[in-house]
Design goal:
single chain; alpha+beta; three-stranded antiparallel β-sheet; 3 strands
Length: 152
């Protein structure tokens, strides 16, 4: 869009529109609880892979799974925790290793059931949901309508 404004060459807007329509026609996966197809063949036919893949987000609970508390809040880098890894035992017990304020290593314990409960029963944060895809599509359509008006 910027190229069209700076150069007055409409081929750039046309190319952007082509990409946008390809994404809408070929890449948006309209199956319930899905977002995008992650692969197409050379003809643009989507690969109908399972919706759940290890790298796909399937739950977006609000809140923090691990957050600093008490003495974990103060040290070299205050008010920060980050995970270093997790181990799940055969009996369903999970140990989550995390660091606090860049100076201490801790371990939190829970169960697979509690983690699943947290992930799927906590409501999503309304500012970080799949609705953002719909908002982006609406914004692109609004921009496209604006460009179409400018071309007249």
């Amino acid at each position: 869009m910027v190229y069209t404004q700076k150069t007055a060459e409409h081929r750039y807007a046309a190319a952007a529109a082509d990409v946008y329509h390809f994404i809408l026609d070929k890449m948006v996966d309209t199956r319930p609880d899905s977002e995008w197809f992650w692969q197409t063949d050379k003809y643009g036919t989507p690969a109908h892979k399972p919706i759940v893949e290890p790298w796909k987000v399937i739950a977006e609970p609000a809140g923090s799974l691990i957050a600093p508390r008490g003495w974990e809040r103060v040290s070299d880098v205050s008010n920060v925790v980050f995970t270093n890894g997790a181990i799940a035992d055969d009996d369903g017990k999970v140990y989550i290793y995390y660091a606090a304020s860049d100076t201490r290593l801790h371990v939190a314990s829970t169960t697979i059931g509690q983690l699943l409960d947290f992930a799927f029963k906590n409501p999503a944060d309304p500012l970080r949901s799949r609705d953002c895809v719909a908002q982006r599509v609406a914004l692109i359509e609004k921009n496209q309508a604006y460009l179409n008006q400018q071309d007249r």
